[in-house]
Write a structure and sequence with these properties.
This protein has one helix and six strands. It is α+β, with helices and mostly antiparallel strands. The chain has a single domain, classed as Thiol Ester Dehydrase, Chain A (Roll). Strands 1, 2, 3, 4, 5 and 6 form a six-stranded antiparallel β-sheet that branches. It is elongated, with a radius of gyration of 16 Å.
Length: 131
């Protein structure tokens, strides 16, 4: 799991109970995951196809720093599948996990297209975990 993104939880991100709003966290996760999927697959354009349930482990509070971790768990000719863990940066307390996020590589016209991690590509066996 690579933790490459950190966000500071501020009052604007809180729900009525004083904890990080789940919708805000999902927006951060989706943004980070789409960037990560694009970098790992070697393509400029990806779209979110599927996100499994978010399993909330503990709340995040104002002033905490959350870090978003991603890992590639699979790929097809046109898709990249990731898993995600969000944790508090200082204590490493798990906040949420997502078992499966699927992103589709698309061309300039919005059609699914092959990417570098897909089976049969010349780069499929290379390590794309630089970003």
């Amino acid at each position: 799991m690579r933790f490459l993104s950190r966000r500071l939880v501020m009052p604007i991100h809180l729900n009525s109970r004083g904890t990080l709003f789940g919708g805000q966290l999902l927006a951060w996760i989706d943004e980070e995951a789409s960037v990560y999927a694009a970098i790992q697959s070697g393509t400029d354009l990806v779209l979110t196809k599927y996100i499994s349930e978010m399993d909330f482990k503990s709340p995040a509070y104002n002033g905490e720093v959350v870090e978003i971790g991603m890992e590639v768990t699979g790929s097809t000719r046109v898709s990249v599948t990731l898993c995600c863990t969000v944790r508090e940066a200082r204590t490493k307390r798990n906040i949420v996990t997502i078992d499966r996020m699927v992103f589709i590589a698309i061309d300039e016209k919005g059609r699914p297209t092959r990417h570098a991690l897909g089976p049969g590509s010349s780069e499929a066996s290379q390590d794309h975990h630089d970003g």
